[in-house]
Design goal:
single chain, alpha+beta, four-stranded mixed β-sheet, binds zinc ion, 5 helices
Length: about 170
């Protein structure tokens, strides 16, 4: 594990593209019909997922719509994390609610871009840290950036050697 610099990040994107079809959570093959996630209401159409209330209402009425569970919800069910964000430091004690609200808002915002970017869990561990696990690395990076932007402190990003898990460490004493 090492901190990733800008060049490393670019490499990582290429790597993800090449192996995207190996992701066991992505549906195989193209479907002409829409599919609806029964858990969160996301709609699968033209090889991608949408979180759009209008679209969800429309496909719900269509008897041809296939019911499924989207990859984001399956990762949540399986507790299959692609990112782990740890927030630590004395600052947390006084600002817990603000941090929790920010994390929730980031998830809502990300859902607009990609409904598969989700939070699996938010936990407080015994040492007073907040630990957030996410379905993919982008969601974890978003949280790291947002917390740093809103509350300063220090943030670091560490990828696992196979690039499948990112650990985001934020600290403010
Ligand atoms: Zn879903």
């Amino acid at each position: 594990m090492k901190a990733v610099k800008r060049t490393g990040k670019r490499y990582n994107l290429t790597y993800r593209k090449k192996t995207a079809s190996d992701d066991p959570y992505l549906p195989r093959g193209a479907s002409k019909k829409s599919a609806l996630c029964g858990d969160c209401g996301a709609v699968y159409r033209n090889k991608r997922w949408y979180a759009d209330e209008g679209m969800t209402a429309e496909v719900r009425k269509d008897p041809e719509t296939k019911q499924t569970v989207c990859p984001g919800c399956r990762k949540i069910r399986d507790n299959f994390a692609g990112g782990i964000v740890t927030l630590r430091g004395d600052f947390i004690l006084e600002h817990k609610q603000d941090l929790m609200n920010l994390i929730k808002n980031e998830e809502e915002r990300a859902r607009g871009f990609n409904p598969l970017e989700r939070i699996i869990s938010v936990k407080e561990n015994g040492s007073g840290n907040i630990v957030v696990s996410t379905t993919n690395e982008k969601m974890a990076q978003r949280i790291g950036k947002a917390v740093k932007k809103a509350f300063s402190g220090d943030v670091a990003y560490h990828w696992s050697h196979d690039n499948k898990l990112i650990r985001v460490e934020w600290v403010r004493e």
